[in-house]
Write a structure and sequence with these properties.
By secondary structure, this protein is an alpha/beta fold. It is built from 16 helices and 13 strands. The strands form two sheets. Strands 3-2-1-4-5-6-7 form a seven-stranded parallel beta sheet, sandwiched between helices. The mean pLDDT is about 90.
Length: about 400
């Protein structure tokens, strides 16, 4: 196995990294020989010499440091091409050359592309390998930008986002035809990819090693709501701003003693400036599971985005009560009021929060339902075995 990733998935402290890390672990447990080639980008740079993870020690690892920062000059010039700037920022001739050398030295049965950003290297793989090619879709990329476009009010930015979405859609549709199989993150995405005419599409949702999600953490003695996420992703900022502007002030006015806790990487200074006795901005946390488990309620107020939210699955595995928008919970086989609370408007979000702190049984009941859902649908061991069967069916075609 050769896996190509658009960032180094160690430590596994974010959605993309957790999905890739758990996939690698599942493959190792099944006896696969795994090689990982990661773009080590400026945005998510990792000093690999400091990685302390037993999974990392069991794989062959290669990296290529790449500057993928958005640059105004290049972004402007890109307007006069037909290429997607979102994708071209991840390509470098030196990286392609490095990949070519690796493929000439070693043969692989399967090469898996983890996300759209590494697909520009497809031609290099095809030219130097006879491996079966698998695309792992962590989300439908153009859909994220399309939803952001719809909600954007500033005309110039709206037009630019529309262009990004249009080019991404074209690239995404065309590139998928060149793979032997597509792995979708949810049944919703599977349906979309099949509608494009791809016959080999399989759903592999976010899966976890549930032994690592036993909730032995202490619950906060105070009424608390928590949100955790990387705040360099635009949909996260958009959703959080909506919550803080439209929902949170009404909760504070109640004088009920409920506190809101924000955690995550790259939180803008503006949020720290808003912090007070009711809004606690914790910033990066050493233990995300402990932060999630400490809260009475976890919120995920996404208004745009695509794919499956890993933090929702993690919170469910820890038996937490979650209030989320339907977009945030998209792709999860949930039942509202049984294993999650869905709220898509300011009023509904406000009322669901009140329910959680007035109905003593609600939080525990939803949390118990959430854990059962994860045990049924997101067990890493079961999906690792299923994934191996897909690989075996692909490679058997040559025989």
């Amino acid at each position: 196995m050769l896996l190509l990733t658009n960032r180094v998935p160690f430590p596994a402290d974010g959605g993309y990294a957790i999905v890739v890390h758990n996939t690698v672990q599942a493959l190792l447990d099944l006896g696969c020989d795994v090689t990982l080639f990661s773009l080590n980008t400026t945005k998510h740079y990792i000093n690999t010499s400091e990685i302390d993870d037993p999974v990392f020690q069991k794989i062959k690892f290669h990296q290529y440091k790449i500057d993928n920062r958005v640059k105004a000059g290049r972004a402007f010039l890109n307007l006069f091409t037909r290429k997607s700037y979102n994708i071209s920022r991840f390509f470098h001739p030196g990286c392609a050359s490095r990949l070519g050398h690796i493929l000439k030295r070693e043969s692989f049965d399967v090469v898996q592309f983890e996300g759209l950003q590494v697909t520009p290297y497809l031609s290099v793989i095809k030219a130097n390998s006879k491996a079966k090619l698998v695309y792992r879709a962590h989300n439908i990329e153009h859909q994220i930008w399309k939803r952001l476009t719809i909600k954007e009010n500033f005309l110039i930015r709206k037009l630019y986002l529309h262009l990004l979405s249009k080019r991404l859609k074209s690239f995404e549709h065309n590139i998928l035809k060149k793979f032997d199989a597509v792995l979708a993150i949810s049944f919703v995405d599977e349906h979309f990819f099949k509608s494009l005419g791809h016959s080999r599409v399989y759903t592999f949702p976010v899966s976890l090693n549930l032994e690592n999600y036993q909730n032995h953490y202490k619950l906060s003695p105070h009424k608390s709501i928590g949100y955790i996420g990387s705040m360099d992703w635009r949909p996260n900022i958009e959703g959080l701003d909506w919550f803080l502007e439209r929902v949170w002030p009404n909760i504070v006015q109640l004088g009920s003693g409920i506190t809101f806790h924000l955690a995550g990487k790259r939180i803008p200074e503006t949020y720290f400036g808003l912090a007070d006795e009711h809004f606690i901005c914790e910033g990066p946390v050493d233990n995300a599971k402990e932060f999630i488990a400490r809260q009475h309620v976890i919120i995920v107020p996404l208004l745009s985005g695509s794919g499956m939210r890993v933090k929702i699955i993690e919170a469910m595995a820890l038996g937490k009560c979650i209030i989320a928008t339907s977009i945030a919970a998209e792709g999860i086989a949930y039942h509202h009021d049984r294993d999650i609370l869905i709220a898509d408007s300011t009023d509904h979000f406000y009322k669901q929060i009140l329910r959680c702190f007035t109905d003593r049984n609600l939080v525990n009941r939803i949390g118990e339902g959430a854990r059962k859902l994860v045990e049924r649908n997101h067990n890493q061991k079961l999906y690792g075995e299923k994934l191996m069967k897909v690989y075996e069916s692909l490679t058997a075609q040559e025989g």
